[in-house]
């Protein structure tokens, strides 16, 4: 298969190297386009007010891998690859392997998931792969899981969907299989640490920790805790069907009273 790989940890991150090299060894045609430095938690940010620059990177990847470092965000990388760098579109977009989980509401901030979502927005099925550890630098198991999923998709093509995959940081033999899940909920306590730089100017450093999690067995969080590889299908439609149902009873209209209130405001 023709595969495009991005990430948010940067082109030199061990996770993307393990993923690209494993898939190249499995016989796939691999193009890697990643940020030239870490761009975690950038969401769908795009670079609009300065040029994007790319540099070919070859020494750290399998000889069959075509790799580029891009000065932009994870979303920039995928958009640039699809619209400018590739001569033909990939059959699948992958993002990762990310260092750290992307579980529950993390997906709204994740550069890893956003890069994969850019592929989906361009009509290409996508995978976002994360390893649920910030300390482990061995991505062999996550790469092996990714190869298994790509092989499955090659046998039975994936509909236009993004699969958000989270792999527990354990040996392959210890994994308790795959689990199809829904997003759980993670709530964080944000901490803005106030500091003073050497010039005496105040700045703030954002940190935070999860203080509440919904980890029912059918959620991605629950699956990972049960030593399963969590797979959650995502799509970009954020419409709240429940909200629409409730608002149907509002009977909204541009009544005379409403318009009169607007006119009064304009006169003031």
Describe the protein in words:
- By secondary structure, the chain is of the alpha/beta class.
- The chain has a single domain (2-184, 215-240), classed as Survival protein SurE-like phosphatase/nucleotidase (Stationary-phase Survival Protein Sure Homolog, Chain: A, 3-Layer(aba) Sandwich), CATH 3.40.1210.10.
- The chain has seven helices and eleven strands.
- Helix 1 (14-25) crosses helix 4 and helix 2 (74-85) packs parallel to helix 3.
- The longest helix is centred in the middle third of the chain and has 16 residues, at 140-155.
- The termini are far apart.
- The mean pLDDT is 93.
CATH superfamily: Survival protein SurE-like phosphatase/nucleotidase
In whole angstroms, the N-to-C terminal distance is 64 Å
Main-sheet strand order equals 3-4-2-1-5-6-7-11-8
Rg from C-alpha positions? 22 Å
- The run of helices and strands is EHEEEHEHEHEEEEHEHH
**Structurally, how many domains make up the residues?**
1
Q: Can you summarize the main beta sheet?
A: 9 strands, mixed
CATH classification class: Alpha Beta
Shape, please? Answer: globular
Q: What percentage of amino acids are in beta strands?
A: 25-35%
What would you say the CATH architecture is? 3-Layer(aba) Sandwich
CATH topology descriptor = Stationary-phase Survival Protein Sure Homolog, Chain: A
DSSP helix count?
7
Structural class of the secondary structure composition? Answer: alpha/beta
Which consecutive residue ranges, at least 5 long each, have pLDDT under 50? none
* Residues in helix, %: 25-40%
- Average of pLDDT: 93
Number of strands: 11
